[in-house]
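Let us work through a complete example step by step.
Step 1: write down the sequence.
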Amino acid sequence: MSYALQALIEQIANAPSQRKLCSYYMDAAGDLFASQHWSIYLHGQPGQSGNIEMKGLPDSFIDYYSTFGKNLDQVMQYVISHHAPAHEQIIFTEAAWKQSDLYQSGCGRIYDHEHIMTGPIVGDGKLIGTVNFARTSGTPAFNTQDLLQLSAICAHISAKLANLRSSEQLSLLNPEMGLTPRETQIAGLVAQGLTNAEIAAQLWISQNTVKQTLKRMFRKLGVSARAEMVAKLRIF
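Step 2: predict the structure and record it as tokens.
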């Protein structure tokens, strides 16, 4: 695992919010995958709109893709079906890619997506977003190493989003409980059933820090057990 990948994974793990998570990702992903165009798209939670961030592409690409490209994108369809990252060479030969409806309709000819790669962000067993890359003319295709690195990043983004959204739900339900953002984050992971060791690994802190933080949270909330804490946070 390269230092650049490790650094991005650490930033993802420590992101305090979804907005910061996307920002950290967008700042690093283009260089990490030697891409000229890249983006992240997150479906909205119930009652909320989705969010997309792009680099290297005009806003017109959003209209093009939603109107034409999405229905022609076999790479995306593979990602949706398999919940695994893919690039065009998994689906097409080089010649078939250049003749594909997606390439011919504008992805390649208008927006210069010579090579494309997409990865899944998942939650609750379903696709809740994607990360997307394109390399322009004169660049090499994505390869197996790119897919392996993208798979690792997608796994960490998926886990972090689950944590953040769980913490946000707890925080919204219990605005008067007095927990700090880090304590709310840990409460969210406890609610997901993670052990102290798993929480420590995900947040890049020691198990002792998790243990001491939980003791402090128990005192604040007037509880003595993890299940009692989660129940109280969800009730008030």
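Step 3: interpret the result. The CA atoms of residues 8 and 28 lie 7 Å apart.
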